[in-house]
Amino acid sequence: MAWKLTLNNLMVEELHTWIDSLLLSKPTTRFERDFADGTLVAEVIRYYFPDLIDIHNYISSSASKQKKDNWFTLKRKVFTRLGFDVPEAIITDICNAKLGSVDIFLYNLRTKIDKQLESRTNIQKRHLASTEQTLFPLTAVNQKHKGEPRFSTRSNVTSKSNNNLNNKWVHQSDFNELKQQCLRQQQQLGLLLTKTHSLEHFVQLVDKRINEFSPAIVDKRHTKHSDILAKKQQKK
Q1: Domain extents for the chain?
Q2: Are 142 and 166 spatial neighbours (Cβ–Cβ below 8 Å)?
């Protein structure tokens, strides 16, 4: 990891664009402050690897102790599984909202995420390749078991279908295409679930804000109404 590099304006802008493209629980206005407690870092990682993050382990806070607790939970439970070695000095700088520290961290985090995604894709490809080697033409399977007892068909239509099937091969390209579609759909489902959780959290935050401001709004309306009545009485 490159922890002592200097990022130019274009690199920083690309990082901020990347973060803005993710559906996080709150908007990022000041990165040093917003990422200081580590909760948004957990959300970023969960966006790509939902299986690594239990979001309830991370508590939003401005207290130094809770910030460090969040970060060291990430370091112990998540970073180690990603092979992501983050120096304690970097964590301390981020907790203290040191200018530029979050950008360097996010640059390295994005690099690690890209490598992990590439690694998982390669594993899936190897799995596909090993699966292909186990495929046989159905005619070969049927010839191998020729003479063995077979299940009786329920109708002439079913029997005809079986006879047609016996003369067909399992096409590897079709299988590979379906397998890839399944993998893509699984990834999309994971992303949708993550976005759903983020939206639910966002709605909870909005409801909380509404509940906080509602009494003040009602009180203000009541005061304004009282002032209007008082002015009307004075005019009379």
Answers
A1: 9-115, 171-236
A2: yes
pTM above 0.85, yes or no: no
Cβ contacts of 221 within 8 Å, gap of 6 or more: none
Is the pLDDT confidence value at 34 over 60? yes
Please give the CATH topology (third level) of the domain spanning 9-115: Actin-binding Protein, T-fimbrin; domain 1 (1.10.418)
HSE, CB side, 13 Å, CA atoms: give it for residue 53.
Answer: 22
